[in-house]
Amino acid sequence: MSRRRQLRRARATVPRPPTREEFVAWPPPGYVPYQVVYPRWSFSYTGANFSSATVTMTQGGASVPVAVETLETGYGENTKVWIPLGMSSSQSWPNQLKDTPYLVTISNVIIGTGTRTFTYEVIVFDPAKAPWDPSGVLMLLLD
Fold first, then answer.
1. pLDDT 10s digits, 98-108
2. What is the C-alpha to C-alpha distance for residues 99 and 35, in angstroms, rounded to an integer?
3. I need a surface site. Which of 36, 106, 113, 124 has the fewest CB within 10 A?
4. With 0-12 CB in 10 A as exposed, 13-18 as middle and 19+ as buried, what is 5?
């Protein structure tokens, strides 16, 4: 076994620090600048079995195509990974003309003796775009 693989396995036994959610997702729930949204989206949960899990995404009520990556275990927390929108792993996320919400659902996650479904929203945005009309704000200040 390579030294790199041994280090990964050793780190897998160290518990992760507390997180905002009971899971770790990238991109995380909430507002995320498009510059740090990568084609590979992921979802981790301590002790989860993702062998029967499915991933669905919607945007504005329409289904978003996802390509689920092969599940690999034994390296840190088990993680479900997928690439949406037919992107390749080397592409950059496109700049959005407006805030773009994506609803993510991971179903049939086996945890202990039961199954769970997780749903969360990721809103991709451009931080360079002002969330208000600056000219309108200026007009209010001048009145």
1. 899 999 999 99
2. 13
3. 113
4. exposed
Give the fold, CATH level 3, of 3-142.
Answer: Immunoglobulin-like (2.60.40)
Query: Can you give 66-105 as a three-state secondary structure string?
Result: EEECCCCCCCCCCEEEEEECCCCCCCCCCCCCCCEEEEEE
pTM for this structure? 0.78
Among residues 123, 99, 122, 115, the alpha carbon closest in space to that of 42 is found at 122
Domain positions in the chain are 3-142
**Taking a C-beta distance cutoff of 8 angstroms, is the pair 41, 27 a contact?**
yes
Task: Give dist(CA 67, CA 85) in Å, integer.
Answer: 8
Task: Place 134 in a pLDDT band, splitting at 50, 70 and 90.
Answer: low
Q: Give the residue carrying structure tokens 């989860």.
A: 48
